[in-house]
Design goal:
Layout (H helix, E strand, L loop, with lengths): L20 H13 L6 E8 L2 H18 L3 H22 L7 E8 L3 E7 L26 H8 L2 E6 L5 E8 L4
Antiparallel strand pairs: 1-2, 2-3, 3-5, 4-5
Helix pairs in contact: 2-3, 3-4
Length: 176
């Protein structure tokens, strides 16, 4: 019918690494309850696997969508989270089954913040090669942090004690 308003509600189940059905049900309920952009924080302790990269990206995107970000920002957030999680799992924790990745995402109406922390040995932040330098243009890796910085409004890296690296990603929330 022309001129008839329609409403479509989509709910995506986020599958967490512990496989708990209770968590999935709570997530769907939270998604329904938060349709008015109520501030929200979600935290997870994830395994050092590529499946955790997928879970973190899905979780970050579901919170960002509920916060009101548009498709362009959702793509940027998803890519930044994916790159950060791959760095934590692959380069930080080196896929160790004994090491975890701490993941949190929060929004408060003004800022959308993601924190990702690994338990790895860390690295010298100042020794990162410039991905735009002519000698690095054809390399198949080394652009992750460059992409994260370009997709997010704020990016911070810091060493953790006793070991590990934590990144903080921030996207400002603009009134839609």
């Amino acid at each position: 019918m022309i001129g008839c308003p329609t409403s479509l509600t989509l709910a995506t189940l986020v599958i967490y690494s512990d496989g708990s059905l209770g968590l999935r049900q709570k997530t769907v309920l939270r998604m329904r309850e938060n349709k008015h952009h109520v501030p929200e924080t979600v935290e997870r302790l994830l395994d050092s696997t590529l499946e955790s990269v997928e879970s973190a990206e899905e979780l970050a995107l579901s919170v960002a969508q509920r916060a009101g970000f548009d498709d362009d920002d959702l793509m940027k957030i998803g890519m930044a989270v994916r790159e950060s999680m791959v760095n934590a799992v692959v380069h930080g924790n080196r896929y160790s089954e004994h090491k975890k990745v701490r993941f949190s995402v929060t929004h408060n109406g003004a800022r959308y913040t993601i924190r990702i922390a690994d338990e790895g040995e860390g690295f010298d932040f100042n020794a990162l090669p410039d991905p735009l330098a002519p000698e690095n243009l054809m390399r198949t890796s080394g652009r992750g942090i460059f992409l994260i910085r370009s997709f997010m409004d704020e990016f911070e890296m810091q060493r953790r004690s006793p070991s590990g690296t934590e990144v903080t990603l921030v996207k400002y929330m603009v009134s839609k």
